[in-house]
Specification:
single chain, 8 strands
Length: 282
């Protein structure tokens, strides 16, 4: 995959330096037409740049366009990046783009939580996850799980609790993301996507941002009914990957005070704008 190359800092550095060299040549020798054309099948371009995520978008943003042109000395046509003529009048901009490219630091993409509110359903505990949730392919995961289950069954009498927990943690590291659903008191389901190694605090903030009464204290209960108390714990450490259905409840002490004061109970848990876009399970 193209994004795999961007994980290798040395390859990213080599690729960006090569791209900067293209721009430097144009800036230093604007009259040389050969520097204004980049052959996309060129070996250097293929090895250093073609799979670098965002490289083609960069070239287009600074003034190149893709064109199919004849190859000199050959009876064939190939794709080139060709600098637009009007860019030659802005060579100082081209030099600035080069400097920006060389001084840039990688930016981690922000994960889209894809917040959804789903209607009450018995399907809330059924999850269909895309392949990119896994570090391994789904088939590899299934094969390893089968082999591990067989091995655990054979050695169950010999394994300590610490050994089992260690293996469980190893399993959890196979996942990139987790899909979490929170069942609310009115039956609606709040759903969001998280990195598997994010802390529970991100889920608490996510839920709070959806509440109409976001100042009221609440609790989140895991699949086994256990309260999530340590917000520093990672999802991968508390068994909430690659998916989980949790339950929401208002802080019991606060609810007792509300009842004792004769105040009407909380009817709408979520913000009205979220309830206006409730979806059904597909």
């Amino acid at each position: 995959r193209s994004s795999d190359l961007n994980k290798d800092r040395e390859k990213v550095k080599l690729g960006t330096e090569t791209m900067a060299k293209y721009l430097e040549n144009i800036h230093n020798y604007p009259e040389e037409e050969k520097y204004r054309k980049i052959r996309m099948t060129n070996r250097v371009f293929q090895e250093r740049i073609s799979n670098l995520e965002g490289a083609q978008e960069f070239f287009q943003a600074v003034g190149f366009e893709k064109k199919t042109l004849p190859v000199p000395g050959q009876d064939a046509e190939e794709e080139f990046f060709v600098l637009k003529e009007e860019v030659l009048g802005k060579l100082s901009d081209l030099n600035q783009y080069r400097d920006n490219l060389l001084s840039a630091e990688p930016v981690r993409a922000m994960l889209d939580r894809n917040m959804q509110v789903l209607q009450p359903s018995t399907q809330a505990s059924r999850f269909e996850l895309p392949d990119d949730f896994y570090n391994l392919s789904v088939k590899e995961i299934e094969r390893e799980q089968k082999l591990r289950s067989e091995a655990i069954e054979r050695n169950s009498q010999l394994r300590t609790k610490a050994m089992r927990e260690k293996d469980e943690q190893r399993e959890m590291r196979k996942y990139n993301y987790t899909l979490l659903r929170i069942r609310l008191p009115d039956g609606h389901i709040l759903q969001g996507t998280f990195y598997a190694r994010e802390p529970v605090s991100t889920l608490v903030e996510f839920v709070r941002s959806a509440l109409e009464n976001d100042w009221l204290p609440f609790e989140l209960l895991g699949p086994g009914g256990q309260k999530l108390e340590d917000e520093r714990t990672l999802f991968s450490e508390c068994g909430l990957v690659p998916s989980a259905l949790l339950n929401f409840q208002w802080d019991p002490a606060v609810m007792e005070d509300i009842v004792a004061a004769g105040t009407s109970s909380i009817t709408n848990v979520l913000k009205p704008e979220l309830l206006a876009n409730v979806q059904t399970f597909s």
